[in-house]
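tool_call: predict_structure(chain=1)
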Amino acid sequence: MLFNSIDFAIFLPIIFILYWFVTNKNLKLQNLLLVVASYIFYAWWDWRFLSLIVFSTIVNYVIGIKLKNGENQRKRKVLLWTSIFVNLGLLGFFKYYNFFIENFISVFSFFGTEIKANSLYIILPVGISFYTFQTLGYTIDVYKRKIEPAKDFIAFSAFVIFFPQLLAGPIERADNLLPQFYNKRTFDYSKTVDGMRQILWGLFKKIVIADNCAEFANQIFNNSADMNGSTLVLGALFFAFQIYGDFSGYSDVAIGTSRLFGFNLMKNFAFPYFSRDIAEFWRRWHISLSTWFRDYLYIPLGGSRGGTRMKIRNTFIIFIVSGFWHGANWTFIVWGALNAIYFLPLLLTHNNRNNLEIVAQGKSLPTGKEFISMLVTFCLTVFAWIFFRADNIGHAFDYISTIFSPSLFEIPEFDGMKKALTVIMLVAIFVLIEWKGREGEYAISNLGLKWKRPLRYAMYYAIIAVIIWFSGKEQEFIYFQF
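tool_result:
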């Protein structure tokens, strides 16, 4: 079920009414309703894969209990590795089986040995990369005795399959989300209104910005061999705003929807395109995944505490694994490695923690130095997105070689230029609104709060009108494939 669908527009009010007006006096009933609603939400895509979530839930719940009761460290390690094997095993089979088989065959073919191995037609279960990391993080935290294991199976099930963030995050930590299922929730009108505002802004990002940019990004990338360099630059820019509007839009709807039910999810995007260096970008982009890899992989490897060789090794590991998490394609691995190359000079010169505060905080405009830093960082990010979007490595290099050819100085040409100019104007307005609201939780979190009610509601209706007017073909969220 897509957030930007009629199905969800019907589903959400029904669950909201049942939650606050039917089950509101019984916490367990509220949690059970969320579990059932989440199963329905997921089954709308493909009910057959519910068994994977149920299996993962049971395994991690039981292991959590046994980790708590077990004192033998050797047995506790066996339990931990069982959880890691089950979670990553499921993810590896569904997401990476064909990738490894195809590359295994290619390696032997390169050395003149022909082997036969069949690839399988495997459907990637939506959200598997997200809920497996969430449950794995829970088990690791229980193992390290950072948190107590869940005793209430219904509450734990709700934590695993909570529908707002099930399909594309944020990847929640158990110490933040799980306790919220134990505590009584009371209806808060102000939280509900704030949640609706964030949902509205998330839908604007997805429908107006991402989906319209997607039309031209797809057209240009799919026909890049026939395009000149300047057109390909435009295609990369369209994709940059497509993926940001798409993914951060999903996160906004997820966080806003959770707030309707009395839950607080972690912030997943903090205006990353206003970053002044790559280190800051990765503190602001897909925060839940970046911090997950930091805490469960980078720090256990030694982080940046060792010598130069260890710092370089750990940096490449974390970025390459992050790239591979996104998909079974060498393009994602190169994208991760490229970001590691961007990041390393900052780490080795101890400048990776320079820009911790919001850019131009309390000011209307950045300084000249800040603007140039943001522009350079944005250009580096857009360049890396080419690998992320390309069909394969050859496609990416052909795309880049055309950009750095004399045709870069030609006028962009492709079908639909008139509509593309309208989309560019919408993106410009969007960037200005994001800049204005960069100190808030989301761009319009504080916009219009002090206005009189008629003017404030006029703003909401204007955003709704723009969403309806500029809505195009309904598209799945990009991160559903990851």
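agent: The chain has two domains: 6-187, 190-276+355-481. Proceeding to next step.
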